[in-house]
From TrEMBL:
Signal peptide: none annotated. Transmembrane segments: none annotated. InterPro entries: CHP02452 (IPR012664), Macro_dom-like (IPR043472), PARG_cat_microbial (IPR019261). This is Microbial-type PARG catalytic domain-containing protein. Gene3D superfamilies: Leucine Aminopeptidase, subunit E, domain 1. Residues 14-117 form the Microbial-type PARG catalytic domain.
Amino acid sequence: MPEKTTLHIQELPPRRETRKDEDFETKIVVVNGDCLEEAIRLRNEGFNPAVLNMASSRRPGGGYLSGAGAQEENLFRRTNYVQHLADPDKEFDPKRKWKYRIPEFSCIYSRNVFIIRASEAEGYAFLPDPVPMSFLALSAYSQPPLTKNNQRLIPEMAEKTKQKIRGMLATGLWHGQDSLVLSALGCGAFRNPPRHMAQLFKEVLAEEEFVNRYKHISFAIFDDHNARGEGNYRPFFEVFAEPS
């Protein structure tokens, strides 16, 4: 049965202090690969990761029932995530007081979602054993207004996007995650510019509230049919390779 799915609305959760006996510098990597495979790898190395679900704000799972193939749909086909986010009859979580929708600066945290299938490239084969994982559902802006060269969000949308990222990062910390598997938020069908999105992530991660709060952050990105131009992996890799 689903356990611990929480909607965090419009505000940052209270800060949780890092344990005083811990001293680390966040390792940030950009990998050209599958987000669930990366999350399982981190878990096997002893981390406690949460995976970013680049979610639809109104339809849990996006178009997973109609054959759509973006990241969220892939997650739903390989896990029991549907039981955590789509529960209109309260069959799985009778105490839930909210219906699915992700407000503008909110995210949904889910714990103990079970990964049960391998990647699409492996034919969605069943895994030998289910792997429990935490998820953070966050919705990007869809086709936001851009500057004249279409390379950057207009300033207002850039700041709003940073606020979304802050809420997601704070929620993960509040729930005790020590690592994250992120991706190119909104850079596929939602048409956010990937290089600018990478820069926004880098700026927020450098803020005092978040610097060195996570032990490890992976951006797991591969260029599917929704990627455009130079793709999404290369811009993120180059932005995070630059000295801060």
